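User: quick one, fold this
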Amino acid sequence: MTRGKVAGIIHRYKEQEGAIREGITVEADNNTQEITSKSPRIKTLAQLIDACDIDLDEWIIERHVVNKWEVGAKGANKEVRVHPLFQVKVWLVKRVPEMVTPVIQPLSISIRAAKIPKTRNDSDRKRAVTLADPHFGFSVDLRTRALTPFHDRRALSVALQIVKDAQPDEVVWKGDINDMAEWSDKFIRGPEFYFTTQPAIIEAAWWIAQFKLAAPNAEHTVIGGNHDDRVDKSIMTHLLAAYNLKSADNIDGPSVLSLTGLLGLDSVGVNYADGEHWLTDDIRCIHGDIAKQAPGATARATNDKANETTIFGHIHRTELTTRTIHERNGQRTLTAFCPGCLCRVDGVVPPGRCENWQQGIAVLDYEPQGEPAITPIRIIDGHAYHAGNDYSGDGDIIERLESDTGWKFS
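Assistant:
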């Protein structure tokens, strides 16, 4: 390097040092600079670039501002002199940005199989399948004598297959096993309902027995519902002499016209529960007596008045709500749940109009204490999906039904 170039560098350095002393400030990082001058000597952007020796081949002027204002000061003879002041500010960006450290690198993860704990298989853990509202019953064609069922055989077939695969500890029917349209005073009974009780009782008993055969080691329980109670109400209203009538060979047994007596529950080893059945001290199964119109309202009303998890029927809708109670020793979560129904939902069930109904059942996994794990299973048009399986209702089951019972249903 020549002596002249060295002298030039020293000169520019002294000029820059002088400029800084005259009010130039610089804020900079790797790729940006913000330079501000408050100097009476520097009045333009060009002067600022020159004073700071900014290399425009390296830097791009992103933006700049120039401000001017005047200030007054008294001289020695007390006369006021006005002096102009200038601010020149420039923002610079490097044309070729430098790499910022630390450098971001692609993430590299060493993957190895995590240790997965074995599934618990506690002997205290149990499983229940709950079914509700099949409404076994018929209307009869007055010309052909053909029977049209209120219950849905395809939905019942799906539920039967799920019970067979699940092998639960309990199977609970939550009421309205029979529709008993012939016994009702709620609406005018047309001739199409006459003499339909017997085939309804026969088919209901057959289906209950099929579920018992599908899960032979389970405890099977039938809860009465308001439709099942129509027989007793009709007897008390119209034929009091038949109330609580028992057969001579089983005088200590159930009434012959009770749900147990009509369905022959004792003969197939199925229990009857009057009103409710408890799976544990914290889980109660009922038919239910609340029915709200708004979706979800019945589950909420049921949960509001309960002190335990309640699995109910009656409304033929899928509803679930939860409520957490904070107590002295901790908290409890209560659930009210209706899985839906197993009767038809196409307007066939009296009074014969389409309602906001859904078909379904539920699988409950539970321990002696605490909240159950509830798996709702919707049944849609004779099909259901559960535990990776596709279940389809058996459309030809009526052949087995007629063969086993000797009764003509088709």
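User: anything notable?
Assistant: The longest strand covers residues 59-74.
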